[in-house]
Protein backbone atom coordinates (compact mmCIF):
# COMPACT_ATOMS: atom_id res chain seq x y z
CA UNK A 1 0.00 0.00 0.00
CA UNK A 2 1.57 3.38 -1.00
CA UNK A 3 2.48 5.74 1.78
CA UNK A 4 0.27 8.82 1.97
CA UNK A 5 2.28 12.03 1.81
CA UNK A 6 1.99 14.23 4.88
CA UNK A 7 0.24 17.56 4.32
CA UNK A 8 2.07 20.72 5.44
CA UNK A 9 0.20 22.88 7.94
CA UNK A 10 1.34 26.34 9.02
CA UNK A 11 -0.34 26.22 12.41
CA UNK A 12 -2.77 24.14 14.39
CA UNK A 13 -6.14 25.72 15.21
CA UNK A 14 -6.44 27.62 18.49
CA UNK A 15 -10.07 26.54 18.88
CA UNK A 16 -10.77 22.90 18.14
CA UNK A 17 -14.37 22.26 19.25
CA UNK A 18 -17.50 23.92 17.85
CA UNK A 19 -21.12 23.12 18.52
CA UNK A 20 -24.66 24.51 18.70
CA UNK A 21 -26.17 25.77 21.94
CA UNK A 22 -29.22 24.13 23.48
CA UNK A 23 -29.31 21.27 21.00
CA UNK A 24 -29.48 17.69 22.15
CA UNK A 25 -27.34 15.97 19.56
CA UNK A 26 -24.47 13.84 20.80
CA UNK A 27 -23.01 13.21 17.35
CA UNK A 28 -19.59 14.75 16.72
CA UNK A 29 -17.96 15.27 13.34
CA UNK A 30 -14.17 15.03 13.20
CA UNK A 31 -12.36 17.39 10.83
CA UNK A 32 -8.65 16.66 10.40
CA UNK A 33 -6.11 19.42 10.87
CA UNK A 34 -5.12 19.31 7.18
CA UNK A 35 -8.80 19.65 6.22
CA UNK A 36 -9.01 22.67 8.51
CA UNK A 37 -5.90 24.09 6.85
CA UNK A 38 -7.48 23.80 3.40
CA UNK A 39 -10.47 25.81 4.64
CA UNK A 40 -8.14 28.45 6.11
CA UNK A 41 -6.09 28.76 2.95
CA UNK A 42 -8.92 28.83 0.42
CA UNK A 43 -11.89 30.39 2.23
CA UNK A 44 -10.03 32.75 4.58
CA UNK A 45 -6.77 33.54 2.80
CA UNK A 46 -8.36 33.48 -0.66
CA UNK A 47 -5.91 31.09 -2.31
CA UNK A 48 -6.84 29.04 -5.35
CA UNK A 49 -6.94 25.26 -5.06
CA UNK A 50 -3.67 25.10 -6.98
CA UNK A 51 -2.02 27.50 -4.52
CA UNK A 52 -3.52 25.57 -1.62
CA UNK A 53 -2.02 22.36 -3.00
CA UNK A 54 1.40 23.97 -3.16
CA UNK A 55 1.12 25.13 0.46
CA UNK A 56 -0.03 21.70 1.61
CA UNK A 57 2.72 20.03 -0.42
CA UNK A 58 0.35 17.72 -2.29
CA UNK A 59 -1.10 17.32 -5.77
CA UNK A 60 -3.96 19.59 -6.81
CA UNK A 61 -6.39 16.64 -6.96
CA UNK A 62 -5.47 15.71 -3.39
CA UNK A 63 -5.95 19.28 -2.19
CA UNK A 64 -9.34 19.39 -3.89
CA UNK A 65 -10.38 16.16 -2.15
CA UNK A 66 -9.21 17.43 1.25
CA UNK A 67 -11.06 20.71 0.74
CA UNK A 68 -14.27 19.04 -0.45
CA UNK A 69 -14.27 16.75 2.59
CA UNK A 70 -13.83 19.73 4.88
CA UNK A 71 -16.63 21.70 3.22
CA UNK A 72 -19.01 18.74 3.47
CA UNK A 73 -18.33 18.43 7.20
CA UNK A 74 -18.90 22.16 7.70
CA UNK A 75 -22.20 21.91 5.84
CA UNK A 76 -23.38 18.90 7.87
CA UNK A 77 -22.46 20.64 11.12
CA UNK A 78 -24.41 23.78 10.18
CA UNK A 79 -27.46 22.14 8.63
CA UNK A 80 -27.98 19.32 11.13
CA UNK A 81 -26.67 21.03 14.27
CA UNK A 82 -23.80 18.59 14.79
CA UNK A 83 -20.78 19.44 16.91
CA UNK A 84 -17.44 19.66 15.11
CA UNK A 85 -14.02 18.78 16.48
CA UNK A 86 -10.71 19.44 14.72
CA UNK A 87 -8.06 16.84 15.44
CA UNK A 88 -5.72 14.33 13.87
CA UNK A 89 -4.93 13.86 10.22
CA UNK A 90 -1.84 13.05 8.21
CA UNK A 91 0.10 16.29 8.54
CA UNK A 92 3.28 17.93 9.74
CA UNK A 93 3.89 21.49 10.83
CA UNK A 94 5.65 23.88 8.46
CA UNK A 95 9.32 24.38 9.28
CA UNK A 96 9.07 28.17 8.94
CA UNK A 97 10.76 28.26 5.53
CA UNK A 98 10.78 31.66 3.77
CA UNK A 99 8.84 29.94 0.96
CA UNK A 100 5.83 30.02 3.27
CA UNK A 101 4.81 33.66 3.17
CA UNK A 102 1.98 33.03 5.63
CA UNK A 103 3.99 31.04 8.15
CA UNK A 104 3.31 31.85 11.80
CA UNK A 105 5.82 29.42 13.29
CA UNK A 106 9.23 30.99 12.73
CA UNK A 107 10.01 34.00 14.90
CA UNK A 108 12.34 35.31 12.20
CA UNK A 109 9.44 35.58 9.75
CA UNK A 110 6.75 38.15 10.44
CA UNK A 111 4.03 39.69 8.32
CA UNK A 112 5.40 42.63 6.37
CA UNK A 113 2.82 45.00 7.83
CA UNK A 114 4.30 44.77 11.37
CA UNK A 115 7.82 46.00 10.63
CA UNK A 116 8.84 48.42 13.34
CA UNK A 117 9.19 52.09 12.53
CA UNK A 118 12.47 52.98 10.89
CA UNK A 119 14.88 54.90 13.09
CA UNK A 120 16.48 58.19 12.05
CA UNK A 121 19.49 57.80 9.75
CA UNK A 122 18.47 54.31 8.61
CA UNK A 123 18.10 53.31 4.96
CA UNK A 124 15.84 50.31 4.47
CA UNK A 125 16.42 47.93 1.54
CA UNK A 126 14.05 45.13 0.54
CA UNK A 127 15.09 42.21 -1.65
CA UNK A 128 12.69 39.72 -3.26
CA UNK A 129 13.79 36.57 -1.51
CA UNK A 130 13.73 32.78 -1.76
CA UNK A 131 16.15 30.28 -0.22
CA UNK A 132 18.90 32.85 0.26
CA UNK A 133 18.76 34.23 -3.27
CA UNK A 134 17.11 37.07 -5.14
CA UNK A 135 13.70 35.83 -6.30
CA UNK A 136 13.19 36.57 -9.99
CA UNK A 137 9.55 37.69 -10.19
CA UNK A 138 8.60 40.71 -8.10
CA UNK A 139 4.83 40.22 -8.39
CA UNK A 140 4.94 36.59 -7.25
CA UNK A 141 7.42 36.91 -4.41
CA UNK A 142 6.27 35.33 -1.16
CA UNK A 143 9.03 36.87 0.95
CA UNK A 144 11.30 39.88 1.19
CA UNK A 145 14.56 40.08 3.04
CA UNK A 146 14.68 43.53 4.57
CA UNK A 147 17.98 45.17 5.52
CA UNK A 148 18.40 48.24 7.72
CA UNK A 149 21.53 50.13 6.73
CA UNK A 150 23.40 52.82 8.67
CA UNK A 151 26.48 54.64 7.36
CA UNK A 152 26.72 52.27 4.42
CA UNK A 153 26.68 49.08 6.49
CA UNK A 154 23.92 46.57 7.21
CA UNK A 155 23.01 46.73 10.90
CA UNK A 156 20.10 44.27 10.87
CA UNK A 157 18.06 42.08 8.55
CA UNK A 158 14.96 39.94 8.68
CA UNK A 159 12.87 37.82 6.34
CA UNK A 160 9.22 38.83 6.12
CA UNK A 161 6.23 37.42 4.26
CA UNK A 162 4.22 39.39 1.73
CA UNK A 163 0.95 38.39 3.42
CA UNK A 164 -0.42 37.18 0.11
CA UNK A 165 -0.19 40.54 -1.63
CA UNK A 166 0.31 40.54 -5.40
CA UNK A 167 1.52 42.88 -8.14
CA UNK A 168 -0.93 45.71 -7.46
CA UNK A 169 -0.45 45.96 -3.72
CA UNK A 170 3.24 45.25 -3.11
CA UNK A 171 4.46 48.78 -3.83
CA UNK A 172 2.01 50.16 -1.28
CA UNK A 173 3.01 47.56 1.29
CA UNK A 174 6.69 48.42 0.80
CA UNK A 175 5.98 52.15 1.08
CA UNK A 176 3.97 51.62 4.25
CA UNK A 177 7.01 49.98 5.78
CA UNK A 178 9.38 52.78 4.79
CA UNK A 179 11.36 50.83 2.20
CA UNK A 180 13.82 53.11 0.41
CA UNK A 181 15.22 50.67 -2.15
CA UNK A 182 13.89 47.50 -3.78
CA UNK A 183 16.34 45.00 -5.26
CA UNK A 184 14.71 42.32 -7.39
CA UNK A 185 15.05 40.13 -10.48
CA UNK A 186 12.29 40.62 -13.04
CA UNK A 187 9.64 43.32 -12.75
CA UNK A 188 7.04 44.82 -15.07
CA UNK A 189 6.61 48.46 -16.05
CA UNK A 190 3.39 48.83 -14.06
CA UNK A 191 5.10 47.77 -10.85
CA UNK A 192 8.09 49.97 -11.70
CA UNK A 193 5.81 52.98 -12.06
CA UNK A 194 4.04 52.18 -8.79
CA UNK A 195 7.39 52.03 -7.00
CA UNK A 196 8.44 55.35 -8.52
CA UNK A 197 5.19 56.97 -7.39
CA UNK A 198 5.83 55.63 -3.89
CA UNK A 199 9.33 57.13 -3.90
CA UNK A 200 11.07 53.75 -3.81
CA UNK A 201 14.29 53.36 -5.78
CA UNK A 202 14.36 50.27 -7.99
CA UNK A 203 17.34 48.11 -8.80
CA UNK A 204 16.09 45.30 -11.04
CA UNK A 205 17.92 42.47 -12.74
CA UNK A 206 19.79 41.23 -9.66
CA UNK A 207 20.57 37.52 -9.46
CA UNK A 208 22.22 35.16 -7.00
CA UNK A 209 22.87 35.61 -3.29
CA UNK A 210 20.64 38.27 -1.71
CA UNK A 211 23.21 39.43 0.84
CA UNK A 212 25.84 39.88 -1.86
CA UNK A 213 23.37 41.83 -3.98
CA UNK A 214 22.91 44.28 -1.12
CA UNK A 215 26.67 44.54 -0.67
CA UNK A 216 27.04 45.30 -4.39
CA UNK A 217 24.31 47.93 -4.19
CA UNK A 218 25.97 49.66 -1.25
CA UNK A 219 29.27 49.63 -3.15
CA UNK A 220 27.59 51.22 -6.20
CA UNK A 221 28.32 48.12 -8.26
CA UNK A 222 24.81 46.78 -8.86
CA UNK A 223 23.40 47.56 -12.30
CA UNK A 224 19.71 48.26 -12.81
CA UNK A 225 18.48 46.51 -15.96
CA UNK A 226 15.06 48.17 -15.77
CA UNK A 227 11.69 46.52 -16.18
CA UNK A 228 11.02 43.64 -18.53
CA UNK A 229 7.96 44.99 -20.32
CA UNK A 230 7.37 42.20 -22.83
CA UNK A 231 4.18 41.11 -21.13
CA UNK A 232 2.92 44.66 -20.58
CA UNK A 233 3.34 46.21 -24.04
CA UNK A 234 2.42 45.13 -27.55
CA UNK A 235 5.19 47.10 -29.16
CA UNK A 236 8.75 45.92 -29.53
CA UNK A 237 11.98 47.51 -28.44
CA UNK A 238 10.55 49.15 -25.32
CA UNK A 239 13.11 49.83 -22.61
CA UNK A 240 12.23 51.01 -19.13
CA UNK A 241 15.67 52.14 -18.19
CA UNK A 242 19.18 50.91 -17.55
CA UNK A 243 21.61 52.50 -15.13
CA UNK A 244 23.76 51.74 -12.11
CA UNK A 245 22.21 51.50 -8.65
CA UNK A 246 23.53 52.71 -5.36
CA UNK A 247 25.37 55.79 -6.60
CA UNK A 248 24.25 58.19 -3.89
Shape: elongated
Order of helices and strands: EEEHHHEEEEEEEHEHEHEE
| Strand residue content | 15-25%
Compute the CA-based radius of gyration. 22 Å
Helix content: 25-40%
- Separation of the first and last Cα atoms: 63 Å
How would a textbook summarize the main sheet?
Answer: 7 strands, mixed
**Uncertain stretches:** 97-113, 230-239
- Overall pLDDT level: 81
- Which class best fits the helix and strand makeup? alpha/beta
Question: What is the count of helical runs?
Answer: 6
- Please report the total strand number as a whole number: 14
Describe the protein in words.
With 248 residues, the chain is α/β, with parallel strands linked by helices. The chain contains 6 helices and 14 strands. The protein has helices at 33-44, 49-56, 60-80, 167-176, 189-197, 210-218, and strands at residues 7-9, 17-18, 28-31, 83-86, 91-93, 109-111, 123-130, 133-134, 143-150, 153-161, 181-183, 201-203, 223-224, 243-244. The strands form 4 sheets. Strands 6, 7, 8, 9, 10, 11 and 12 form a 7-stranded mixed β-sheet that branches. α1 (33-44) crosses α2 and α2 (49-56) packs across α3. The termini are far apart.
Gist?
The protein is an alpha/beta fold and 248 residues long. The protein has helices spanning 33-44, 49-56, 60-80, 167-176, 189-197, 210-218, and strands at residues 7-9, 17-18, 28-31, 83-86, 91-93, 109-111, 123-130, 133-134, 143-150, 153-161, 181-183, 201-203, 223-224, 243-244. Helix 1 (33-44) crosses helix 2 (49-56), helix 2 (49-56) crosses helix 3 and helix 4 packs parallel to helix 5.
